[in-house]
Amino acid sequence: MVLTESGTRHAPAADWLPGVLQRRPLGVVLVFSTLPEDVKRRLRAAAIPFVVIDPAGDPDPDVPSVGSANWAGGLAATRHLTDQGHERVAIITGPEDMLCSLARLDGYRSAMAMAGLQVDPRLTRYGDFHVQGGFEHAMELLEGPDRPTAVFAGSDLQALGVLEAARVTGLRVPEDLSVVGYDDVPLAQWSSPPLTTVHQPLRNMAEEAARMLLRPDDPGTAAQRIELATRLVVRQSTAAPGSRDRRTGVRRGTAPARRPGGGRGSRVPAVSTSVPVRRPSFTARRCGAVCGSSAYTVPVGRRGAGAVARGSGPGTPSWRRP
């Protein structure tokens, strides 16, 4: 199997394919990538199977791919904040041309609508999933007028940048600012404070991709698209706004109750498990995701093995609305 680092490019470099063909691997796994038609044709001609994890753009119906419920993850993260009473919620998502970034952003917008809150376009930022980008965007948000009381970052690394920006600007987390990340990387539980985040099953995604390559006849890999559940992990970086009086130190708000046995993080169990799903069509700017993968529910309709968002209420993804 071939592992190639392509940096920030969404497509393999020009010299990538000849090297792959020369090595004759059992299969190819690409992450955050798109495959030109010529590359797909030449890989198939050489009988080299391939799978894309988290495609950068719309999933090609003829390309096996593995992803996670990004829309539901964005919904759960934002609902957690609005349920605590936050109304000024900012989002620092990923690159504007990446499917997962737009899906998380749509989940955020749906959660704000479900809470009856307007989305302030000044609080939406497109980042790069890295610490420095999260820090720079957070500094602009926190030093501006009418700053947010909470920030949902599209990756844990961006969230670490937000925590540093809060420290630089003299804001306490979570007393003055709540922060939610995404991915649940190992470092998240060791940040200060431990980071509330959305767990993305990265290891399972890699395992599913390998299974699709190495066991193509397995009944569980018959689908061209597999999407895994996400779940919210509540730690100590979120609380109700104004939850501690600056002068007396007395709590004025109520933080969410911890589940028994939560330890350093209280995991909200996912409603669904990984299932092969049939996805709605995508456009370049709108993203879909399978629902039922977080602690929060939205109107869904069953279609085959997966639940696809339907309806026209405020909790329905905008790409499904009339």
Question: Could you give the topology of this structure?
Answer:
Elements: H1 16-23, E1 28-31, H2 37-45, E2 50-53, E3 65-68, H3 70-83, E4 89-93, H4 99-114, E5 124-126, H5 131-143, E6 150-153, H6 156-168, E7 178-183, E8 196-199, H7 202-214, E9 225-228, E10 231-234, E11 266-267, E12 275-276, E13 300-303, E14 306-309
Parallel strand pairs: 1-2, 2-3, 3-9, 4-5, 4-6, 6-7, 7-8
Antiparallel strand pairs: 8-10, 9-12, 10-11, 13-14
Helix pairs in contact: 3-4, 5-6
The total of helices stands at: 7
- Could you spell the SSE succession in H and E letters? HEHEEHEHEHEHEEHEEEEEE
Q: Termini, distance in Å?
A: 44 Å
Taking pLDDT < 50 over at least 5 consecutive residues as the criterion, the unreliable ranges are 245-264, 266-322
Give the percentage of residues in beta strands.
15-25%
Indicate the mean pLDDT.
Answer: 76
Helix content: 25-40%
Rough shape?
Answer: elongated
User: Rounded to an integer, what's the Rg over CA atoms?
Assistant: 20 Å
Biggest sheet statistics: 7 strands, mixed
Number of strand segments: 14
Read across the widest sheet, the strand sequence of neighbours is 5-4-6-7-8-10-11
Structural class: alpha/beta
